Amino acid sequence: VIAVSGTGTDTATTIELIEYYHAAFDHYFITGIPDEISKLDAGVFQGWARTGLKFKAYPVDTPSASNVCRFFSTSFDPKSSHFYTADAAECATVKANANWQFEGEVFGVAQASAAGECAAGRIPLYRLYNDGEGSAPNHRYTTDTQVWSLMVANGWIPEGSGVGVVACVPQ
User: Fold this and answer.
1) What is the pLDDT of residue 12?
2) Is 159 strand, coil or helix?
């Protein structure tokens, strides 16, 4: 799903990232890839259902945005996990880990300040980590502060700047 949005003369193309949940794994997953969304919605990848949450991001190679690396691992069989990062050093570190397969750069985000603040017209993207609970790592990415609060109350660990801001995304 691609749309054009912006304020004033600052217009940028955005994509929509859809969140899914796998109840048996207790894992969350996001994607903005249309073919993947169609397959998830059709049940091709069993166990995944939409949570009803979504947020906007930028397409890969958007000027003044950082590309997000996506990784996949089956090292936690029967569970699997995805991981996303816009941090170049973190991306390089995970690429060097044989347990994670680099799938490519999949969307773009703006960088947050060291305090986790975003520029006008952008909102924080939070990353929360399950601390490996259930024998497999999982991260949840959200722009919703109520979701952030619920996940922290359930023992998930905020990662990033400030209260767990890893990037900024379009409103």
Assistant:
1) 65
2) strand
| Percentage of the residues of the chain whose pLDDT score is greater than 70 | 93
Tell which residue, 39, 166, 23, has the closest CA to residue 31.
39
Is residue 167's pLDDT more than 50? yes
Q: For residue 158, what are its two tokens? A: 């905020």
pTM: 0.90
Please, what's the b/e burial string for 14-43 (b: 16 or more CB within 10 A of its CB; e: otherwise)?
Answer: bbbbbbbbbeebebbbbbbbeebbeebeee
Tokens, residue 57 = 């991001």
Inter-residue contact 73 to 99 (CB < 8 Å): yes
How is residue 34 written in tokens?
């249309």
Q: How far apart (Å, rounded) are the C-alpha atoms in residues 60 and 163?
A: 26
Separation of alpha carbons 33 and 129, rounded Å: 23
CA distances from 137 to 28, 36, 76, 77, 120 (A): 10, 21, 8, 12, 33
Preceding amide of 34 cis, omega within 30: no
